[in-house]
Each structure stands twice: as structure tokens, then as C-alpha cells.
Amino acid sequence: MALLLLLLLPALGAVLLPLLPEHQGLLRRVSLATVLLQFVIGLTQLGQGPSELHQVWLPRIGLSLDLGLDGLSAPLAVLIALIVLVTVLATPADQARPRLFLSLLLATDLGLTGAVLARNALLFLLAYELVLIPTTLLLAVWGGPRRAQAAIQYVMYGAVSGLTLLGGVLALGWLNGDGFSFAFSDLAAMQLPAGSSHWIFALLVLSFGLKLPVVPLHGWQPLAYGQASSPVAMLLSGGVSILGGYGLLRFAVGFLPEEWILWSPWIAGVGALTAAYGALNAIVQSDIRRLVAYGSLGHMGLLVVALAAATPLSLQGVVAQLLAHGLISALLFHLVGLIEAKTGSIQIPELAGLLNPYRGLPFTLGLFLLALMASAGIPGLAGFVPEFLMFEASWTPFPVPTLLCLIASGFTAVYAVRLFNRVGFGRLDNDRVDYPSTGWSERFPAILLAALVVVGGLWPGLLVGWSESTTTALALRREPFSALVAIAPSASPRQLPS
Amino acid sequence: MTPPTATAPETQRQPLIPPSTHRYAEVIHRLEAGGSMLPDTPENLMQIIGIYKAYAVPMDFYWRDLLYIAEQVFLDPLPAFKYFPTQEYLDRPNAYAGEQSKLRIWRGGEKAHPELLEFMAKGETTRMPKLLHHLWHDRINMEFAEACMEAMFWHQGMGGRFYDYLECDAYKANADKAIKAYFRGNPLMLGLYALFPEMFLEQVRKMSYYANLGLFWEVMAPVFFEMSDIYDEGGFKGVPDAMDFLVNGIFAVAGRPIYHHVFIGGECFEIIPKSEGFTWLYEAALPYVEAVFYRTAPFRGTKSYNAQAGQVPAVQADFHYGILYADVFPVGSAGIPPTLLMQDMLHFLPPYLTELYAKHKRGEGDILNQLGITFQRSMYNVTSAVIQALRCALLYPLDDTDPEHLMANRRFFEAQMDRFLRPEARLPQIQTQDYR
């Protein structure tokens, strides 16, 4: 029942909202109530153990309503609900066309939740594609001046990602030696015909690499994040991008382990390249939102290296990174939105002195500093836990890519200091400064996210506790230091290459 | 830009000199017409008078404590209680205000202002011993007054003879007597004095500047109090009236002696005797305006600068960190002296200013910034008074009919305005009411 409610609530909300009168307060309350309920239901499912729901839908094409929650999907489902919740909270009170906007947010929520709950590859594909439509509209209608270009790029990349995923999923289902099935349970146990697994793997990696994204498949990301309105950027970075990481873990690592092991050095290389490219680009950006976007790209690179390592610890780090990155990037984009709303600019050369206690935005900049520190992996904050796990676990199989990621992670401090030196300190411009202060309703989403970032750092169990048994079961390599890690007795790595 | 207009109610007279082409021609024409650098608007008048009142109350403490330090604390090597003037100094009558004064010019002044005494007793918190108020920093911030004194002491070559006198033999002899008297029976300090006489002399010079500034502010405090009273009584009609009151005040006490007396064991040591003839206008007021309004020091927080990039001038005369150039937005950053003054004035704001600030910008949230900008406006008016006073003393009347004389006045005003050509000057900003 809980599984069904997790899907039904955003679906109902997305359908109901367009029928309501165009009243900002009412629409917001309905959206909040829907997502809050979804979030609470998700919370109740954490730590409950695996649960599944099987409902035949279109058996002739192999589509069934197979839903499930395990240590991987449960925390991500909660994260998605949380990100949508804060996105609704962060939606400006004077949001244009609120009915459509909130309805599309909930439709995105439906797609994201459906994707992480799906236990059928075709159902996953449907949910995955569903996400693309509302997010494209959210980007195209409410974005910045170059939103049309951003939306076109986004939808093009998304379409390629969807098509390649379609090809990969259909091939997985049809070439399954045991018969025609898209159920995850069947796919996990399938035996692919010799030779076909290479290109299926390539299709899946390409699809999820585009979504995550990784270099050189990231072309859509800086423009989309840069042009999206802040709530949409929060949703894209905190919610949508996790689909890429989740897909790689569930499909590529989960269903094609031999291919993953075979190609993992190359994947790790791409991850290291992504990390370095993202960090170096972030340093030279003059637009704060693009800086955050490139910083986010860099952290995705680290995640890919850890995925390539595929040890129990690294995969635990990957899930923790998906959670932490979702919180941190949503916080960053919300704060960037506040800066833009109050100052009218997010261009670094145009801003200065925002830490001024009276005329600046000290609260916003203070939390921004916290979020950047978390992003840099400062101990005590949520970013530290996954980074530590991933570095620790990736070092033995891939020392050079891990070292590159370590250096790239250090660059986070470089662009954070550079940003603060220019934007936070210095004198406010006499001619420009007439910034209104942030209100508590604007601060609340940031406070909520910041609190979770701090709690996640002080209580790592919040980030890693839920996924341990699932990620251990998915792991492909054993750690040389597995004694350091509390692996559930029932779980053991599937394949231990020599 | 409009040329200066001589009053010709019935027939339009041609201006005797052509209009100024200076960048601040409009301000210069206003000065030539007897006005202030600050535009004459009702709100400007309200702002400057209100802030004079808020400034006068802490100033009433500043001058008393400065004199207390100069005359009583003197060379105390551990002056932990220098901000605790004795009751004698709090009850000390003003030399130029009130019926008890030898030369009554202004009202009040019998002893410390009642609002000051009330604040000293209660602060922002509640009634408690002075030491607790001090430690809680719930007090008048003498650090600001000391920073002003240090600015005067540090910047030299600002005219007058005062600083040069501190190097002369007569001064050294007087200081020597006072030092030896102060440390009588203290072989350690006397031994140190024998080893490092210049160190002690320099401290005495500093004390002389304490006295100098204390005597300067003793005059200014009742001036500001009376301006506030006159405004409350409906007496001022515009900014020029307020400026004229200041000009008249400057001339009324221009000859007030500046001296430094020290009281040791009940005996008075005249380190700078009144007979030396140092006067208020030339040895205190003008150096104060130059050092504090124009120059001061680049306090981190009032001005952003990069010393490594050569943004701090090598020549002290080129310093431009005073209130006339101050960027008040960083106020509150680091307990810097101007911030402390804003905090002091905040306690004594008249209600009409509090209401004004509540209506603009962030209301109470940035009231320190708003009152800082008001203070900046008011100091442009004080500087205008000083400029007009200097013009009166050195040049020609504004209604002079000789074009040569008017051109001399013009050159003087233009030279004064040249100091505000640098981009940091806030003169252009105070011309509009939007600057808050």
C-alpha cells in the first residue's frame, strides 16, 4: 500500500492541481500537503526491509506494475520527496502560472519516484521518459533569457538518453536467454548471448552517462542549470541527476557485472576526467549558477570513479553521495536563487560585500559557505561521509583516477574561496546596493536543507545506514580492508575477480 | 547649473562673475549664495539636527573623559579605569554653556547631560555596577574618541603651532616636571624614564592631544544640544540656518584657549599653559576637521583597500578615509571606531529620526547604516560651516560687489571642492535624498 501511495500521491497531485483555481496559496498548500505526505510515507519505509508490489499491467509487452523498495531505492525515494518538498517551498510567492508550474513539479516527482521504485525495466523506462517532459517544460517556460536554447539542448540530450535506454532495455528483455521478461529479478539472473552484452552495456552507459552527466556527455548541463529558475535547478541537480547514478548502479552494475568489471578502468578514467573538468571549469566561471553547475559535475565524476570500483564500501559511498549531493546541490541552487532575487544578478564581477551584516545577505552567504564547505568534503558536514568512503574504497583498484578526484575535490575550496573573496567580502556598491533582506519563508527551505547537511555529517548513518546490505549485494570487488567495514552477514559480494 | 544670484527682488541683476565650470559648480554656487554643501531640504534639516542631538550626548561624555584622562589618569601605566571619569568630571560645568559659565554662549552645560547620566546608569541592559556595564560593552565607546585623538596626533602639518610646540624645550621642561612628579617614589618608572625619556615624552604629547580634543568637544557638545533645542522650538527654517549657527559658534569661541594641565597630588602642572596663546579655532577645530573629517586612517571596515596594490597613499596629506569619504556600508563589521560612534548615537536618536529610518531601506535592520549616512550628511554641513568660516576669516563677504573679490572667493570654494573630486567622496551622493 505504501508503495502505491508513494506513486499515487504525486500522480493525484499532478492531475488535481490543474483543476483548481489559479490561487497561489491554495495551489501551494495542496502541493505541499501532497509531497509532505509522500515524504512521511517514504520515511516510514526506511529500514523496513525490502517490500514489493506486483501487478500485471500489459503482459503482452512484458509491462507490469512491479514496484519495490530496498536499501537503494528507499533512501532515494525519500530524497526525491524531500527535494520536491523544498522545491515547492522555494517556489516564489509571485510565481507566474503557479498551477502549471506546481503540476509539472509533481509530474516530475511522479517520474522520479516511479523510476526508483520500478522493478520492471519497461516501467523504469516509462518513468525515466516521463521525467523528461515536465522538466523540459519547466526549463522552457520559466527559465532565463536563453531558456529556449537550454530546453532544446536538454530535450535533445534527454531524447538520446531515452532512446539509448529504450534500446538497451528492449535488448535486455528480448535477448534474455530464459525468455521475454523485463522484471528486474529475471534480468539479474539472465544469461545474455555472447557478443550482445557489449553493445547493450554501451547503450546503458551512454544513456545514464548523459543523464548524470559525465564528460563528454555533459553539454546540456551548464546551460540548463544556468538558465533554469532556481526551483527547477534544485530539482534537476538534486533529483533528476540521481537517476543517472541510480541507473548505472541498478542496470549496468546490477545486470551486466562482467561488462562493468571489464570496462571499469575506462569508466574510472572518465570519472576522473569529469571531476577535473568540472572543478577546473568551476574555478573560471563568472556566473554563480554555472559555477555551482560545474562543481556539481565535478562531484558526479567522483561518484563515477567509485561506481567503477564497485566495492561494497565504494557503492555505499555512491548512494551516500547521491543523497548528500542531492541535499547540497539543492541548497546551493536555492541560495543562488535568493542571491539573484535580492540583488538582481549572479554575476561574480557585479557582486561584492554580500556578507555585510546590515545591507548584505549575510544569512544567505553564510549558508552558501556552509554548503560549499559540505561540497568540498569538510568533516562534520554531509559531503565528507561519501567522499571519504569513495576515496577510501576507490584508491586500491584505481589509484590514479582517485588521486585526480582528490585533487579536483581540493579545487572546490579554490572556487569557494574565490567566490567568497569576490562576492562575500569587499565593499558594497553604493550605486547598486538596495537589496531587500531575505524573509523567513525564503530562508526556511535553506535552513531545512542546511540542517540535514549538518545532521548528515554528524550522523553518517543517515546517509549510509539504509543501503549497506543492498550495495554489498551489488558489489563486484572485495575490499582488501573489508574488516574495517561492517558488512551484513547475509550479504556478500557477488563476484570476486582475482 | 545656475550662477550665483545676488539678491535682487525687483530687478534681475547680471551676475558679477561668470558661472563656475567646476564639476561641483552647483555646490559652489550654493556656497557662494551662503548655503551649505548639503542641499537645503526639510528632510536634510531634520536628519542633521536629529543626528547632532544623538552625537552631542556621547560627545558630552567624550570631552569629560578626555580631559579626565589628560589631567588625572595621565601616565598611569595600567590605565584600566581610564573610561571611568570621576563624579567631579561628570559634574564639571561647561566653560561656555549655562549660567554658571564664565563666558555663557550656549544653554545648558551645568553638568553632564541627563540622558547621558541615565544611559550610564542603565545602558541597554539594566542598572548594574559600572564595571559590569563596561565589561558587557554596554557603555559609551571612548575608543572612538581616542581614535579621533590619535588621528589628530598622527597627522601633522595641518596648520597651527600646536604640534611644533610639543617639540620645544619649554614643553619638554614642563613635561619633565610632571613626569617626575607623577612617578615620585617610584624608582622603577623613574629609572625607565632616565633610560627612555622620549618614550615618556611621547606619552605626554599624546596626553596633550587628549586635552586638545577634550577642549574642542567641550565647545561642540552644547552647540549641538542647542541646535536640537532650537529645531524643536521651530527655530531653524533651513539647512543654511543650521550652518550659520555653526559659523557664528565657531567665531564666538574661536579664541578659546587650548591648554594642557595635569593634576598630581593636588598640584596643577601646566604642561601647555594658557599663556602660550593656543586657540580653539586654529589649534583644535581646523586640525580636527582635517584629521578626522578628511584624513583619519584606513580602518579596515570603513574603507576597503589593498595596501599591497598601493591603494594607501604614501603621503599622509593624501589620506582620504574620513567621514566625508566613508563608505558606511561595512559599518558594524569589526568594532572599528566609526562603528562604535554609530552605536553610541543609536542610543540617543530622537524619535523623529527613528521613525524616518523605519520607513526606509531595511528599517531597524540597517539603522546603523542609515544613521551613518545621516552623520555623513551632517558632517558635510559642519565642514561647510568651517569652509564658510575660513572664507569669512581669510577672504571676502559673499555680498561683496567687487568681481575680483568674488573671483577670489570662487577660487577658494573651487579649491575646497577639488578635495571631493576623488571617487570616494560622497559629496555627489548627499545631493540626493535617495542616498540612505
Structure overview:
The complex is a heterodimer of chains A (498) and B (436). Chain A is mainly alpha-helical and 498 residues long. Chain A has a two-stranded antiparallel ribbon. Residues 482-493 of chain A have low confidence and may be disordered. In chain A, a hairpin with a 4-residue loop joins strand 1 and strand 2. Chain A has helices at residues 2-16, 24-45, 73-90, 98-117, 121-142, 147-174, 184-188, 196-211, 220-227, 230-240, 242-255, 257-284, 288-309, 312-343, 362-376, 384-395, 399-424, 440-458, 461-464, 468-474, and strands spanning 51-58, 63-69. Chain B is mainly alpha-helical and 436 residues long. In chain B, strands 1-2 form a two-stranded antiparallel ribbon. Residues 1-11 of chain B have low confidence and may be disordered. Chain A binds chain B through residues 353, 356-359, 426-428, 430, 433-434, 436-437, and chain B through 303-304, 327, 329-333, 361-362, 365-366, 368-369, 426, 429, 435. Chain B: This is CO2 hydration protein. Chain B: It comes from Cyanobium gracile UHCC 0139.
Looking at the chains present, what oligomeric state does this protein adopt?
heterodimer
Radius of gyration of chain A: 21 Å
Using a beta-carbon cutoff below 8 angstroms, give the protein chain pair with the largest interface and the number of residues from each chain.
A-B, 13 and 17 residues
- The mean pLDDT of chain B is 90
Number of DSSP E strands of chain A: 2
Largest sheet of chain B at a glance?
2 strands, antiparallel
| Percentage of residues in DSSP E strands of chain B | under 5%
Structural class of chain A: mainly alpha
Structural class of chain B: mainly alpha
Compressed to H and E, one letter per element, the order of chain B equals HHHHHHHHHHHEEHHHHHH
Order of helices and strands of chain A: HHEEHHHHHHHHHHHHHHHHHH
Q: What gross morphology of chain A would you assign?
A: globular
Rg of chain B, alpha carbons: 22 Å
User: What is the overall shape of chain B?
Assistant: globular
Contiguous uncertain segments of 5+ residues of chain A? 482-493
DSSP strand content of chain A: under 5%
Mean pLDDT of chain A: 88
